[in-house]
């Protein structure tokens, strides 16, 4: 019975951690892209002849920011589907019987 309680606690804490990982990752990506976009518009207004150069770099950085967020989402989904922390509890429960 003790292993079942530990199993439920790990699942609960994992769910909270997943929400935090995805939430803070999305918040950071949104803030980063917003700041970068405002700086791009400011630079484009000051020197319109540099827009093609700046636009390519802006899209590259937007892709990198989104990639960092998606790596966090992938890691969170890994823990949601195949949680390695539960393996220890399951092996301990199997050995205890």
From TrEMBL:
Occurrences of domain V-ATPase proteolipid subunit C-like (ranges): 16-78
SUPFAM superfamilies: F1F0 ATP synthase subunit C
CDD domains to which the protein is assigned, alphabetical: ATP-synt_Fo_c_ATPE (cd18185)
Localization (cell): Cell membrane
Superkingdom of source: Bacteria
GO MF terms held by the record: lipid binding; proton-transporting ATP synthase activity, rotational mechanism
GO annotations of cellular component type: plasma membrane; proton-transporting ATP synthase complex; proton-transporting two-sector ATPase complex, proton-transporting domain
Membrane topology: Multi-pass membrane protein
Site feature location: Reversibly protonated during proton transport: 66
Family: Belongs to the ATPase C chain family.
Name under which the protein is recorded: ATP synthase subunit c
Native source organism of the sequence: Rhodanobacter denitrificans
Species classification: Bacteria, Pseudomonadati, Pseudomonadota, Gammaproteobacteria, Lysobacterales
